């Protein structure tokens, strides 16, 4: 578990913004889980963020960004997104390796370098995990006809559209299974134990529910 020193102000603000984008109500426990910090560390951090005018905590316990906090959070998310694209598109780093690297580098990017990255890469492209700058609400994905692998139909062929990217161990697992953005797969069965059996690149594998929920598909 990280402590409050390792989760910076920008980490907290970005986590709030990303959770909101996914449709979550952001309470302190959500931040503790997403940032892998203790509940006391979150309490201390929120006090600092309130003092700095970056967040407000309502009587319902929900943490909300102020305009100042939202601007900081978005620029942090944008820097992360641009760095991931830079590592992939310019330096050829594999998609499953770049999230943690971008987490480290996003805090070191100057406004000048950010502007150069935006000029070089543009603002609108998807990252190597198939995601935009901010995570999308699952409702929006479903409206486009996408669904998680955990809800796929046996016998149907799909193309992977995007992956949840916060867990590096999950990304490495998916890579080793041959699953990545743009890959085609066939669902063989939805099993009684909530696992999913798939065929991909002439190989077969079984994914548990957490992994299957992290893979989004389109028929």
Give structural attributes.
globular; 8 strands; 44% helix; 219 residues; two-stranded antiparallel ribbon; six-stranded antiparallel β-sheet; alpha+beta; disordered N terminus; single chain
Task: Give an overview in words.
- Helices cover 44% and strands 17% of the residues.
- It has helices at residues 9-21, 28-35, 39-51, 67-90, 98-105, 111-121, 138-143, 168-176, 209-213, and strands at 55-57, 63-65, 146-148, 157-163, 184-190, 196-200, 203-207, 215-218.
- Helix 2 (28-35) crosses helix 3, helix 4 crosses helix 5 and helix 4 crosses helix 6.
- The model is unreliable at 1-6 (pLDDT under 50).
- The chain contains 9 helices and 8 strands.
- The termini are far apart.
- A hairpin with a 5-residue loop joins strand 5 and strand 6.
- The longest helix has 24 residues, at 67-90.
- With 219 residues, the protein is an alpha+beta fold.
- It has a 6-stranded antiparallel beta sheet.
Decide which structural class fits the backbone: alpha+beta
Order of helices and strands: HHHEEHHHHEEHEEEHE
Mean pLDDT: 92
Largest sheet: 6 strands, antiparallel
Overall shape: globular
Taking all Cα atoms into account, the compactness measure Rg is: 18 Å
Short description:
The protein has 219 residues and is an alpha+beta fold.
Helices, strands, pairings?
Blueprint: H1 9-21, H2 28-35, H3 39-51, E1 55-57, E2 63-65, H4 67-90, H5 98-105, H6 111-121, H7 138-143, E3 146-148, E4 157-163, H8 168-176, E5 184-190, E6 196-200, E7 203-207, H9 209-213, E8 215-218
Antiparallel strand pairs: 1-2, 3-8, 4-5, 4-8, 5-6, 6-7
């Amino acid at each position: 578990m990280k402590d409050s020193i390792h989760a910076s102000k920008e980490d907290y603000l970005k986590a709030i913004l990303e959770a909101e984008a996914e449709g979550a109500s952001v309470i302190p426990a959500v931040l503790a889980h997403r940032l892998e910090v203790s509940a006391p560390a979150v309490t201390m951090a929120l006090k600092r963020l309130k003092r700095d005018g970056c967040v407000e905590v309502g009587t319902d316990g929900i943490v909300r960004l102020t305009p100042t906090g939202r601007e900081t959070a978005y620029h942090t998310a944008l820097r992360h997104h641009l760095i991931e694209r830079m590592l992939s598109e310019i330096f050829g780093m594999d998609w499953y390796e770049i999230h943690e690297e971008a987490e480290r580098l996003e805090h070191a990017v100057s406004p000048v370098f950010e502007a150069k990255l935006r000029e070089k890469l543009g603002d609108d492209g998807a990252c190597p995990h198939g995601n935009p700058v901010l995570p999308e609400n699952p409702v929006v994905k479903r409206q486009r006809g996408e669904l998680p692998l955990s809800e796929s139909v046996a016998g149907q062929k799909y193309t992977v559209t995007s992956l949840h990217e916060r867990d590096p161990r999950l990304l490495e697992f998916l890579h080793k299974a041959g699953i990545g953005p743009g890959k085609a797969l066939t669902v063989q069965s939805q099993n009684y134990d909530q696992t999913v059996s798939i065929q991909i690149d002439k190989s077969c594998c079984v994914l548990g529910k957490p992994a299957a929920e992290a893979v989004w598909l389109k028929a």
